[in-house]
Specification:
With 493 residues, the protein is of the alpha+beta class. Helix content is 36%, strand content 26%. Strands 18-19-17-16-22-23-24 form a 7-stranded mixed sheet. A 6-stranded mixed sheet has the order 3-2-1-6-15-14, with helices on both faces. A 3-stranded antiparallel sheet has the order 4-5-8. InterPro entries: ATPase_NBD, Carb_kinase_FGGY, Carb_kinase_FGGY_CS, FGGY_C, FGGY_N. This is ATP:glycerol 3-phosphotransferase.
Length: 493
């Protein structure tokens, strides 16, 4: 029987399970899709029990995908970040739905808190994060007010608050209540310098510390499984880490000069640093992961990239993403249209909730193809916005921008990104890099590998997109025009 690590990547739209061997190869995989609900304007939810059932389904599919029997040596977890759920400690029964990272229900509370500039500044200095409804803190505060006797029950320790990794581990082990440093850092409740839950923020938001999990290393055995579908009892849970952080680790982001970009519904550009970097308004300072030491991270979260392409596709009445790509390929490369997809404000590096989405540069000669291409170009320019801020902060030259996510399979998009940035794009051949990153951390925790140098020696296959000097000026000129379009999108109506 072959030994494997079971790496579970719970994302916004699906749960993936991978079987990873000691050579770092994926030998089996399974995927189960998740539903998302939009019960009211600005409210985005998921069913916490559905996540658990789809975990079981993906694990079973992964095990069925290999012809031979395998021994699962450890479980690794990567998860969608910022989404949060509250449940009853005694029964494990959810008291809320999963409040998605996309959910804006606490926008009014954030607006009120931002008026207190001293507190707003304190939150960013403590957590590295700008006050925004994306992060769990304000949503948890509102949820406790809405639960009958919520605050009193929370102070008694009767209520658990957890991001999705915590909910997953609670259900797999049936009682372990922990989170890792990377996920704690995304709650906007964790002091990333002191590495403790921040008492000042908890007090202001009315969140009792008794509701919060113990914070542990990202690579650490925290408990063992109970029987969980096809997953047997007694398997150690050896890693947990936010998906964007896991992707950075999977790309080898513990080495200097590596920056990662995950392209999906939204996008994340991230780099790891061994020391706490300066706090900047434009991008988040966070904890990348903790294994034998703590690595901090610089990150910019972009709200609409893949979703901007899909939104434009629907507006144009195009049936599929493939057809959208074909349509965009028919555009005049020198078209005048620029799309700023501020469909729910702008994220990094602007953090402007008042910005509105616009197409500008429309002319009588504008074709549908030009509009389609402008949607793809908006992804390139938004990533460049964040990449440029991060590159200014890093002490070393950036060797590669390592990429993952569905849109990265578009070769034109990746080559254009390289040409715009003047940096080589490195796309791994394994799409599920978040799961792989979590699996590598688990392997370190159980002794499969002793050092990161051993991880670096594992065979990795990837495709390179070197920048073309002949195209750099063209893309830089278009980027300057895009920047003008962003200024228009930020004008108050």
């Amino acid at each position: 029987m072959r030994s494997v690590i079971l790496a579970i990547d719970e994302g916004t739209t699906n749960v993936k399970a991978l079987l990873l061997n000691k050579q770092g190869d994926v030998i089996g995989k399974g995927t189960a899709s998740l539903s998302i609900r939009f019960p009211a304007v600005g409210v985005v939810e998921q069913d916490p029990f559905e996540i658990i059932e789809k975990m079981k389904a993906s694990i079973a599919l992964a095990l069925d995908s290999v012809a031979e029997n395998v021994t699962i040596e450890a479980v690794a977890i990567s998860n969608q970040r910022e989404s949060v759920v509250l449940w009853e400690r005694s029964t494990g029964k959810p008291l809320t739905q999963v409040m998605s990272w996309q959910c804006r229900r606490s926008e009014s509370l954030c607006d009120t808190l931002r008026q207190d500039q001293e507190f707003s500044r304190y939150v960013q200095e403590s957590t590295g994060l700008v006050l925004d409804p994306m992060f769990p803190a304000t949503k948890v505060s509102m949820a406790l007010q809405q639960i009958p006797d919520g605050h009193a029950r929370a102070e008694k320790g009767e209520i658990c608050v957890g991001t999705i990794n915590t909910w997953m581990i609670w259900n797999i082990t049936q009682n372990v209540f922990v989170t890792d440093a990377s996920n704690a850092a995304r709650t906007q409740l964790y002091n990333i310098a002191q590495q403790v839950w921040d008492e000042g923020i908890l007090a202001r938001l009315g969140i009792a510390s008794e509701t919060l999990p113990e914070v542990v290393s990202s690579a650490q055995i925290v408990g063992r499984t109970k029987a969980f579908g096809a997953l047997p009892s007694g398997v150690p849970i050896a890693s947990q880490i936010g998906d964007s952080h896991a992707a950075l680790f999977g790309h080898g982001g513990y080495n200097a000069g590596v920056v990662k970009a995950t392209y999906g519904t939204g996008s994340s550009v991230m780099a790891a640093m061994p020391n706490l970097p300066s706090i900047r308004h434009e991008i988040s300072t966070t904890i990348a992961w903790q294994d034998t030491r703590l690595f901090y991270g610089l990150e910019g979260n972009i709200t609409h990239t893949g979703s901007a392409i899909d939104w434009t596709r629907r507006m144009l009445g195009v049936e599929s993403i493939e057809a959208m790509c074909q349509l965009a390929g028919q555009a005049d490369p020198h078209h005048s249209v620029f799309f700023v997809p501020a469909l729910s404000g702008l994220g990094a590096p602007y953090w402007d909730l008042e910005a509105t989405g616009i197409f500008c540069g429309l002319k009588s000669a504008t074709e549908r193809a030009d509009i389609a291409r402008s949607a793809f170009e908006s992804v390139l320019f938004q990533v460049a916005d964040v990449f440029n801020v991060i590159s200014d902060e890093l002490p070393e030259k950036i060797e590669y921008l390592c990429v993952d996510g569905g849109p990265t399979q578009n070769d034109w998009l990746m080559q254009a990104q390289a040409d715009l940035l003047g940096v080589t794009i490195r796309r791994g051949d394994v799409a599920e890099v978040s799961a792989v990153g979590a699996g590598l951390l688990a392997g370190l925790a159980i002794g499969w590998w002793q050092t990161k140098d051993e991880l670096a020696r594992l065979e990795n296959k990837f495709t390179l997109f070197p920048p073309r000097d002949t195209k750099h000026e063209y893309w830089q000129d278009r980027y300057q025009l895009w920047s003008l379009a962003v200024k228009k999108a930020r004008l108050a109506f």
